Amino acid sequence: QGQLAESGGDSVQAGGALRLSCTASGYTFGPYCMGWFRQVPGKEREGVAVAYVGGDYRDYSPAVQGRFTISQDQKALYLQMNSLKPEDTAMYFCAAARLFDTSGRVRCSRAASLYRTWGQGTQVAVLS
């Protein structure tokens, strides 16, 4: 079936940087949509960045565009987070899905409700 696991969360000062990693067990990364999501108490889970693993598509939340970068290699999915702000404080999750449009093309969305395979999360705290 497969399982995802996040790592790299930490407590950092505003302006600092972190790199989150997401590894898969039970399967290898393939032609899937994979992404990073975050959630804070009392708010909806937010799609931070998604990527088509097997293509070039990348999509970022406007809140992180220019500061965060999603990438992947043969071993893991990554989220490089630079210039961190206190409002970036959240539990960060990675997720995977196979999403297609009506023509059969992969279409990766930042809507959390469309994703079915999730990790347990890693906590990021940005101190002011």
Could you please describe the fold and organization of this structure?
This protein is an all-beta fold and 128 residues long. Helices cover 0% and strands 48% of the residues. The strands form two sheets. Strands 2, 4, 5, 6, 9, 10 and 11 form a seven-stranded mixed β-sheet that branches. Strands 1-3-8-7 form a four-stranded antiparallel β-sheet, with no helix packed on it. The model has no long low-confidence stretch (mean pLDDT 92).
Provide the structure class: mainly beta
Quick one: overall form? globular
Question: H/E element string?
Answer: EEEEEEEEEEE
Q: How many distinct beta strands?
A: 11
Strand content: over 45%
The biggest sheet amounts to: 7 strands, mixed
Distance between the termini: 41 Å
Q: Roughly how many Å is the radius of gyration?
A: 14 Å
Helical proportion, percent range: under 10%
Mean pLDDT: 92
pLDDT < 50 stretches: none
Number of helices: 0
